[in-house]
Amino acid sequence: MDHSAVFRRVFHIVSPAFLAYYLIPENVTPNITRLSLAILFTGTAGCIEIARIALGLRLFGMRPYEGQRVSAYAQGLLGLVIGIFLFPEVIVVPVFLGMAWIDPLRSWCRRRHWSVVVPITAYAVLIFATQTLMGDVPSVLARLAYAAVATTVAMSVEGPRIPQVDDDLMMLILPMAALLVAMALLPPTGLP
Fold this sequence. Notes:
- The structure is a single chain.
- The protein has 192 residues and is mainly α.
- The protein has 7 helices and no strands.
- It has helices spanning 3-14, 34-55, 72-86, 89-111, 117-134, 140-157, 167-185.
- The longest helix has 23 residues, at 89-111.
- The termini are far apart.
């Protein structure tokens, strides 16, 4: 059993815990804001990543090719932080859940020679269901369109294709940008 691979999958599955950011009050104390906590956490993770690369350390769960590049963990965090700062929550939450849960599902299906339809369908259902539960997209037509857009983009960039860029980053940034455009063209309330 590859314990490193198991750790990566478990980390993916539990990583939506980072979405607790949205549950933190804007002002934690009079002098500490939710934003300052996010910056502190991200800065600390960035310093650890820089030190890891500089010292040539390979942390548990990392793939061998991540040794001298920014790790998938750090790239996933970067994607989430960019999402939090640039995109509305109704885009960030479903797309992050898709990266966290469907990326490992697609890998699992690939190893078992299952049809790509399984993770594609799961991603679309996840996007649709999450936006339904969040209640910010009242139109069923809009939710279906957004699910189709996010699924198409995310599934097309899943898998390591660019040596220095991990699919965890691409599966966050590109679907979020595509959804932002889709929401501009088809507002959450439906047809303009």
